[in-house]
Automatic annotation (TrEMBL):
Organism of this sequence: Lentiprolixibacter aurantiacus
Protein name, UniProt field: Uncharacterized protein
Alphabetized UniProt keyword annotations: Membrane, Transmembrane, Transmembrane helix
Transmembrane segments: 12-32, 65-84, 96-118, 124-145
Length: 160
């Protein structure tokens, strides 16, 4: 089945090669609060509200860009992994892709609702930071496991 909105299958491996290291490094960076000094740069920003500085609608501010680089790498590579065509893409795989996306969306917003109900202040902030990526991770996990299950249980040579 030919779908116009999916990347070519050959990009999936490249996506994995960036997604896994960027995810690990991003998690470790947040956990250890590591910000290498060489990534401290002046950046253009909007709605700048410096802790001990001025508020500006638009302007330049000093920022360590490691989190931005890793966040963008995780998003772009995650989208590449999630939405690259399977070599044997057909209606069954399309159905699994849709079901995985719906499942990930429900779980993502379920987590968010629980956070609204039970978490506050800085804890809520951290859940929101991780929630930006949760839907992508949940989809990739569910879709990958579903495809592996399909290939393992199918007697049809088409999926092997």
């Amino acid at each position: 089945m030919k779908t116009k909105y999916l990347f070519h299958a050959k990009y999936r491996n490249l996506g994995w090669m960036v997604f896994i290291p960027a995810s690990i490094l991003g998690f470790v960076t947040l956990l250890l609060e590591w910000e290498p000094a060489f990534l401290d740069v002046e950046v253009l920003g909007f709605f700048i509200d410096e802790v001990f500085g001025v508020e500006k609608l638009v302007g330049f501010t000093e920022n360590n860009i490691l989190n931005e680089i890793l966040g963008i790498l995780v998003i772009l590579s995650g989208l590449t992994v999630a939405f690259s065509r399977e070599p044997d893409e057909d209606e069954m795989i399309t159905k699994i892709r849709l079901e995985s996306l719906v499942w990930a969306t429900y779980w993502n917003y379920g987590i968010l609702v629980l956070a609204f109900l039970f978490l506050y202040d800085l804890t809520f902030y951290w859940v929101m930071v991780f929630n930006m990526f949760t839907i992508l991770y949940l989809f990739i996990i569910r879709f990958t496991l579903s495809i592996r299950k399909l290939k393992a249980t199918s007697g049809n040579e088409e999926y092997h």
